[in-house]
Amino acid sequence: MSGDVTGEGGAVGGRAAQLKHTGLRPGWTTGACATAATTAAYTALLTGAFPDPVTITLPRGQTPSFALAAEELADGSATAGVVKDAGDDPDVTHGALIRATVRRLPAGAGVVFRAGPGVGTVTRPGLPLPVGEPAVNPVPRRMMTEHVAEVAARHGAPGDVEITVSVDHGEEIARSTWNPRLGILGGLSILGTTGIVVPYSCSAWIDSIRRGVDVARAAGRTHVAGCTGSTSERTVVAEYGLPEDALLDMGDFAGAVLKYVRRHPVERLTVCGGFAKLSKLAAGHLDLHSARSQVDKGFLADLARRGGADPALAAEVAEANTGLAALQLCRAAGVPLGDLVATAARDQALAVLRGAPVAVDVICIDRAGTVVGRSTVA
Q1: How confident is the model at residue 11 (pLDDT cuts 50, 70, 90)?
Q2: What pLDDT is attached to residue 244?
Q3: DSSP 8-state symbol, 363
Q4: Closest CA to 223 of 240, 211, 210
Q5: Which residues pair with 71 in a beta bridge?
Q6: Alpha carbons 117 and 167: distance in angstroms, whole number
């Protein structure tokens, strides 16, 4: 993990300080583990030897090394396995064995992904992958593709391969996730945008949010942002040029930010996060974790109606597979559901602030960090 972040006057704040303050050990995403397994397997396919440990580069430049728990070299393919270490996070995939099997493909075929045992397949629209694709999310796909290209360049190979990702007992583990309800069938999703699992306990994380507000105020910041993750942090930095000690990594704890800022006001608070998460805030939920609140498609349908949706579109929104699918339906029809959700979330935030002298605006983004909705400042 990155080190301390020092603001004006030597104050330590921002996301890095919050992570350190929790005192919890970070871990690795399934996407990072799959990338390590892929890198080792492709290296063995080209050289006959598995690198152990195998080192990869994460999206933010960290270079962790992973021990191999499984190795198999066969005619035309190689398989490597890595045991996921989720650190101190209560992750259902902690300890799972993630395997990658790499096979050569004809020149020009590129990199093709397959779902092996324990990895799900997308069966419904509204997710960041087309129906029929293995549930290997976009950032892990990019990581694996980039590492294949690096290994290929190192050994003078074309880099055209099929990568089959599997997870031992993944179908059983997936029953403890939302995958079946989302139409991801047959196993787990391979996830992660940074490669790192950020652990939290409720009390430690909420305490770290409070510390973040205190540091921002001590540094004289008049505008802070509560962000659900690293992508939303990048968005508010691009939008407003906020320094790192003005960024509060609120995760799922929107209520913790709002209640503490109510008692310790700043002039302006921006709340930024994924559309689906912030639709929960818009509906009145202050804890945005998937285990404790869900996207209410009926609520989204009501908002869509207020935004001009006809009864047929509202019915489609109410039956949408995901919040993203509902958003896409409305955007295609010219109904500003993103702005409506952002405005409703802002109004909920103002209700929690109970008249504290804090101006609030809300920005909703998609998985790529594109702004899909925003409120005015109120």
Answers
A1: very low
A2: 86
A3: E
A4: 240
A5: 80
A6: 6
- Taking CA atoms, 104 is separated from 57, 87, 297, in Å, by 23, 34, 44
Q: Is the pLDDT of residue 125 over 80?
A: no
- The predicted-structure confidence for 182-229, as pLDDT tens digits, reads as follows 789 999 999 888 888 766 556 667 767 887 888 789 889 999 999 998
Q: Cα(346)–Cα(254) distance, rounded to whole angstroms? A: 12
- Quick count: other Cβ atoms within 10 Å of Cβ 139? 23
Report how far residue 107's alpha carbon sits from residue 157's, in angstroms, rounded to the nearest whole number.
10
pLDDT at 64: 95
CB–CB of 168/222 below 8 Å?
Answer: no
Reported residue count of the chain is: 378
The two structure tokens encoding residue 108? 């020009």
d(CA 336, CA 352): 25
What's the half-sphere exposure (Cβ side, CA atoms, 13 Å) at 93? 30
Q: For 85, which DSSP code?
A: -
Tell me the three-class secondary structure of 239-279, residue by residue.
Answer: HHCCCHHHEEECCCEHHHHHHHHHHCCCCEEEEEEEHHHHH
For residue 97, give both structure tokens: 């064995």
pLDDT of residue 195: 86
Report the Cα 186 to chain-centroid distance in Å. 21
Contact in structure between 55 and 116 (CB atoms under 8 Å):
no
Q: Which residue has the tokens 């029809």?
A: 333
Nearest partner of 80 among 70, 88, 92, judged by Cα: 70
The model's confidence at residue 2, banded by pLDDT at 50, 70 and 90, is: very low
CA gap 216, 244 in Å, rounded = 9
Instruction: Note the pTM of the prediction, 2 decimals.
Output: 0.63
CA-based nearest residue to 226, from 265, 258, 199: 258
